[in-house]
Amino acid sequence: MFLYCGIACRRKSxxxxxxxxxxxxxxxxxxxxxxxxxxxKKAQQTGAFYLFHRLAPLLQTSAHRYLAPRHSLLExxxxxxxxxxxxxxxxxxxxxxCSEQHEAWFALDLGLNSSSxxxxxxxxxxxxxxxxxxxxxxxxxxxxxxxxxxxxxxxxQALLHWHHTHxxxxxxxxxxxxxxxxxxxxxxxxxxxYYPQVAPVVITLVSDGTRCLLVRQSSFPKGMYSALxxxxxxxxxxxxxxxxxxxxxxxxxVESLQYSASQHWPxxxxxxxxxxxxxxxxxxxxxxVNLRELEAAAWFSxxxxxxxxxxxxxxxxxxxxxxxxxLPPKLAIAxxxxxxxxxxxxxSSLPA
Length: 352
Fold this sequence. Notes:
By secondary structure, this protein is an alpha+beta fold. Helices cover 34% and strands 24% of the residues.
C-alpha cells in the first residue's frame, strides 16, 4: 500500500509539473487568443501595445541603446482620441506574444491606412512629439536593440506588413477580414482562410578547412560582408538549395554540409533563415563570382574574421586597413554562423 501511494504521488507530482509548465500554459494561452476573438479582445484590456508608423517601430534612446516602449489600452485610446481617431482603429493591431504572467502583447501601425475604419494615417512628427520617441527603420536600429525587443519587433513588423499587403482574396478579389489576433484573414464571400506565410531561405557559411567564404551584395551597407544566402526553390530540399546557391553564386561545389540553427528574419519580407555550414571539395576553391547575384566574394583567414567579429559595428575605422570589412550584427544568424566557425577553428588549433 505504501509503495502504491508513493508511485501515485510521484505520478501526481509529474502531471502537476506538466500542468504548471510556464511554456506550455503560455503557448496554450496564445493559441486561445488566436482562435477566440472574444478572448483576444478581453486580453487587450490588460495587454500592452507596441506602436509603429509605416512599419517603423517607436523607439526611445537610453544609454546608447534603443528601447521599445509599451502602452496600455487606456493610454492608446487616449492617444487616438487626442488626434481625432476612432478607438476602433485598435482592431488593426496584431498579437505578437505574451509574458509569463499572460500579459498579451500587441502591435499597431498608426501610419498605415486603417482597414477597420475610414480614418487616415496619423502624421509621424506629431506622434513622435506626443510619444517622446522616434519611429526608426528596424534595419537601422539593429545594432542598438536588445534581443527580446528585437524578436518582438521582428514578429510585429512581419505581421503588420503581411496584413497591409494581403487585404484581398486572390480568388474572389473581395476584401478579406482579419481576425482579432491577426493570425489569419478570411474572405467573407467564400470562407477561404489565408495565413501569414514565411519564405524558407538557406544561409550558408562556406569553408575550405582553414578559410571561410564571405560575400557582398550591392544592397549591403558599405564594407559589410556576410554568408551566402538564397531562397529555396519549389521542389528543392534544403541540401539541394545549399548546393545550388553555392554553385550559382560563387562557382564552387559543396562536399558536405551541416545544419546549425534557424531564425525568423523580417527583411525584406518575412523569411525563415536556415543556417548551415558547408565545406567545398579540396583543390576546388577558385571563386567565380556571379555578378548578377553578388558584388564581391573572397576567402578570409581565421585571424581576419576573428578581428572583424570583435568590432561593434560600422564606424569610421572601417576605412582603416586594419579593419577592411565588418560583419552583420549579433542579432543576425549570419553573425552566429561566423562566430561558430571562428570558435571551431580556434579549438581545433589548440594543442591536444
